[in-house]
Amino acid sequence: MKKIFIFLGPPGSGKGTQTSRLADKLSLPHIDTGSLLRKNIQDETELGIIAKGFIDKGNLVPLKVVSEVIKDRLSKDDCLDGFILDGFPRSIEQAEALSQILSELGKFDLKEDAMAVYFDIDNELLIQRLINRRSCPKCGTIYNLISNPPKIMDYCDICDSKLTIRKDDNEETARARFVTYENETAPLYEFFKQLGILKELKADGSISEIWEELKKIVFDE
Known about the structure:
Shape: globular
Radius of gyration: 17 Å
Number of helices: 10
């Protein structure tokens, strides 16, 4: 079985939910790039201070800085047996940077040890998923008013906090995000396909149905 898992797919395709499930199932660290950057900023690490400087100015954090944050995280002992990446890579440039990071760490090889899983889903279905998405500001649990609603409307099942709507979970912003995805991230499909590590997953079913399909892909490899 592979040791590195990379999930691909447009915003709202369910990658985050399935990433967390797979991490628990395989006892591998779930490395969320956004959370990783936020933690570095919160802890005021050297890289966090640099990243905050760009974010405070409304600029994207440069690849060089993100790569250093990722490299530092992958060098930890809990990544010795593998890891699951969430939010990285998002472009061919980032995929090439990941390959370089693995080479520098001397632990894994992208072609030999990684599997990229592509979440294939219709954009119009995604629009409905995004505008009906709610999240818990306290524990981070994600709900969907259609496919995975909370037991009590607007309140988290786990910690009873009032659920919030992300400011970018509206139709106009969602469609703009799809354009960005198609321009920057979608080419990764061909990149990983040519590398021979791409697997495709139909992601238009329920969370449980997608999970069952994902397990087949991961464990039948």
